[in-house]
Amino acid sequence: MSKYGILIDITRCIGCYACEEACAQRWGNPVTETHQLSSIQNTAVEDHDGIYVPRLCMHCEKPTCASVCPVGAFQKTKLGPVIYDPSKCLGCRYCMQACPFNIPKYQWNKTNPKVTKCDMCYDRIKNGEVPACVEACPAEARVFGIKEELIEEANRRIKENPETYYPHIFGLKEVGGTSVLYLADRPLHKLGFKAGIPEIPLSHFTEQIMSKIPNYIFWGGTLLFGIWWITKRRDEVQRLQRKLKEMEESNKKGDEK
Amino acid sequence: MKRIKIPKLTFWGAVFWIIIVLGVYSTIVRFTKGLGAVTNLSDKFPWGLWIGFDVLCGVGLAAGGFVVAAAVYIFNLEEYKSILPSAILTAFLGYLLVIFALLYDLGKPWNIWHPIIMWNPESVMFEVAWCVMLYTTVLALEFSPMLFQKLRLETPRKIIKSITIPLVVAGVILSTLHQSSLGSLYLIVPEKLYPIWYSSNLPYLFFLSAVAVGPAMVTIESYLSSRAFRREIELHILSKLAKVTAVALMVYFVLKVEDIVNYKLFPYIFTFNYEAILFWLEFVIGVIVPIILLVNPKIRASKKGLFVAQFITVLGFILNRLNVSITALENYTQAGYFPKWTEISITLFLVALGFAAFRFIAKNLPVFPPEIEKRKSLSEGFEVIPVTEVFKEQN
Question: I need a labelling partner for A178 at 20 to 30 A (CA). Which of B44, B150, B301, B346 fits?
Fold first, then answer.
């Protein structure tokens, strides 16, 4: 279980975009008015009919991006953040294809492109600071802390204000749990999140088949050699039988003579 | 001054050079301005035509190499030996083109070798990368005797010949693994793929359709090269090979019907929408029609009939791969992806290069056996007696 996480309380977000600005500053990106995750925006506050929904990488406990990356460019750190190493990346974009939250974005118009996503300000956390977006938030809509304590806090808020909150901590079980947790007044699939996200890590679906490979190589190899051996022997026997027949026939002919 | 002879330009020659010119233009734009300038790919739709066609179809269509190699060496069906060199060459060029296509599609193609030293065994892509790498090496080795024969290098030819069986076994295992793993790539997106195409059987479906389409491609390649090089076509072998396609498609059919029942897909396939229409097109063209045509001995015995039937198999196969990689994701992503003309031009460019390379090599190396009479008498000498007759003789 990872150490840190971020609790996002959608009911508290006032849509001031201070987090977006702080994030842009941290990455050296320009500030935009699009309020959508993109290769120059690693956090965004989406407007869903007047409800402000902060978005960022969910930092899964068992990240799909880390599972699918052929070169291990993604890594779940012990502190919680999922980080990306562009020097390993070969640009296959399987991470983008596989991410259940569609977080990784791509620098499509660069000749040396990178995948971009939030890293929970990993370098700041390591130095004991909090992520830039959390620090900038004036409404405490984003809280940074030890994940277990955040879960307790979320449960306390739901218990104390049952009429305000939809009783579900999003991220507690989704895809096997995430380090970023959400509280809202309604289910999150009504706020731009995709419905039907499984509660098990997605890597489970490929593990089932990948684990069969070593066995297959062993059995398959043995079986193929076996078939080769048998069919080769069969051919030899047939050739000998044919020869025998020919000899018998020529003997008969000799006898007749 | 001497007059320069202008070579006569045929229709297909003109098409070829137009494709080359457009392809070179798109290549320059791709590597100077990035993927965004030549493709309609986006953050919403990161995999397009190049993955769907160049990689998924390319690898599948090159499956003839391992199917025929297994028939000749593992099952000792020596009669197939005459089509093996051309099947190997087709497969080898196919894989080289897939790797070539990846150099366009990868954002950082100069890092393509990274999976060799940076391991993530959990990743299906990692496994595919290794299998494609190793199998291309196997194909290069299987192809090399043709080169050695031309160059009259006897020692290396003998060395390769002595390791043929382990090489073919490795080739079959590697092919089984990555042909199926291309399907496994999509196992991790259960919530994104349209239900008609998501199934835990995806790896098996991908493998079976590759086994079916491999012989189909060998047939088409034989047919086209018999016309181009004015050779006799090995109809008796190709019509036997067509049974492999038919049987693989029958198993595919059963597996897919099982999926339709198990995943309760009836409401999805019996509605009138984009996905259902494309599914039926794929299923009818790629599975049902080829089975009906190929089980008919009259069609199998006719040159045209066999070619048409196998051509339909290939079309259906391509439609299936494009459906899984593109159609099945349109509903979830709502990206409305359709390839840009430059994307299509690079795909055509690679296909044209493949044709040209095959022609060049087939003209200069002993890809086709020299005399058909000689071979006929040879293959008759090794005619395989059916198993039932073998038992009859023993009783």
Answer: B44
